[in-house]
Every structure is written in C-alpha cells, then in structure tokens.
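Bit of a strange request maybe. I'm writing a small parser for structure token strings and I need a real example to test against, not something I typed by hand. Could someone generate the tokens for this chain?
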Amino acid sequence: MKVITEGKKWNKTLEENFSNIDVYSKYEYYNLYEKHYDVKSESIFWEDEYLKVFWPHLIRDVSKLKRCADFSCYDLTTPYGYGGPVIHMNTSDKVKASESTRSFFEDYKEYALNNGYVSEFIRFDPFLRNWEFFEGIFHVEHVNDVVLVDLSQELDKIWNDIRRGHRRHIQNSIKEGCKVRFIENPSEEDLSDFIKLYCSTMDRNHADQKYYFSTEFIEDHFKLLNTLLTVVEHGNNTIGMTMFIYGNDSIHYHLTGTSTDTEKVYPPHLTLFETIKWAKERKFRYLSLGGGREINDNLFEFKRRFSRLTRQNHIGKLIFDEDVYSELMKLNEPIPETTNYFPKYRYGYEKIV
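Reply from user aminoacidic:
Good idea to test on real output. This should exercise your parser:
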C-alpha cells in the first residue's frame, strides 16, 4: 500500500494504472478543497495480481469541531460532487475478484485505524459504478439517479430525445434573440457577474449557507481545473451563467445561476443544449447533468427531459473505530433519530466538506 499526497505522483499513478481519468479523481480537484476548506488531500494506491485500487479522500481534523477539542482523531470524506475509488480489475473470476477486494479493504481499514481515522463518507461516481465492488463489505446506499447525455449519438438523435416542451423552450429562446458565449478564461467582470447570479439563485432556492461559495473558491476552479463558463445573453442582459468542469472523457454540470428577468426565454434549457453541442464538437463521450435533491423531484425531472439515459448514484458510510464514533456522538446530542446525515457526530455543522 502506498500513501500519496504529492500532486505529480498522484496524477502519474492514475495515468499509469487506469484509463479515462475523470476530473473528480485528479489531484487538482482535491487540492481545490484543501486550499479553501482546512482539509488535507490523501490517496491510497494498493495492488495485487488481480486488482488495482486508487482511493482518494479529504482528511478532516475532528478536534476542530465544537466540544471535540480533546479528541486527537480524523475523519475522511469525498469533495462536493462525485468520487470514491478508481478500480481496475484484472480478472473475470468472481471469487478471485472478491478475495482481492476484501484483502484490500482489510489493509485499508488497518491503515485507517493506525492513523486515527474514525469514519469515512464516500460520494461514489455514477460513471465508474465503483460502489459495486464494495456492496456487502460496508454500507452502500442508493440515494438517487443522475442523468447523462450520450454525446456519441448524432445530434439529431440527441435533439429528438429531448422532450417536446424543452425543445420548444430552446427554439423560443433562440427566436427571441438569446445568444450563448463559452468562456474558459473569465475576466474579473465575468466572475463577478456569475457570483451575483449564482447567489441570487441560491437565495430564491433558500439554499443552505454552505452552498454560498467564496469568490476565491470560484476563481480557483478556472485556475486549477478544466472549467467552462456558458453564458446566455438576451439583449444587453446576462440572464444565465453555468459552470461545467471536465476531465478526459466527460463534462459535468457543476454550478449555475439564472436571472428572474426571463419572460419568454429559458436560459437553463438553452445553456444545456448549446453545451451539448460544444462538448460533442470536442469529442467528449458524456455530459453529466447530475440528479435532483431527492429521488424523482422536479429538478431531476427537468434534467430527465433532456435524456433517457440514467445511472444510479450511491454513497458509502464507513465507521473504522466504533468506540470513538460513539463517544463523539455523545458530544453532539441531541441528534434526530431520523437523520440520514453521516457521520452523525457532524450533524448541524454546515460545511460543504
């Protein structure tokens, strides 16, 4: 087992052992959160004859929580979005595959305990389907589905799969004179406009405070990651701005803001269709639209009307040290019995990581 924290070694290990590396696995995505959220980046590389595992996570210091200063321990999490382990299985023998996976996990759990890691929360990657390797080994939970657009299809096929109402909104927006720009190196004015639109959208949606990202955090997406800003303009007004991030093969709908002054025009619909065209021209395989806040809610249905292709989205919950976990729970009482929050001792702490 190798522990990797240095950026060049992190990305080199990925590139030499795995194919089609997505943005969510790269060092730069983890470093973005390390810069802004008082966490540390770490990845674990493990291999045997049949299996290679690259397991990245963020390390949080539990002692920095209120009432937990006396605890010298840590917990692990995936950054906002998707992630979890990158897996390469070199056998079709299910018994050998299972044995290797369990052998890895035994080593990983021993490492976690030796380093004072109490628990880990994993946002698995719907593209990688990486939860499938660990069902039955630790708690894996289906939370919702995500919508993908298969960009290998002809554009006419993609257009015809978009529901009629969405197509009409796209056509009306074009007819009313909406224009779309794509920006990869935004100016200060572009970033300021995005943040204003994004924050006003969060206000309308009564979003949790943790989703109000800092200006520097937004800026660093463009400095550290492959990031696209799609801008919709109507006359002299900017009415929609959306950030997409991308890796080698896939592009992901990330953060968005829209104006309320959009009578007869539909910036979200036009944004997604024009970005489909942009991504298709650049040979991306998939556009991920994400899912909803809950299973089959209005946000999911909006996205579902762009494509019939969906994948399941899962999370993982790991407790390495049951005794310490229980002690931490006692310090944060009362915790609602019905909450699905994990780890429960962090319930009520509004942080994106």
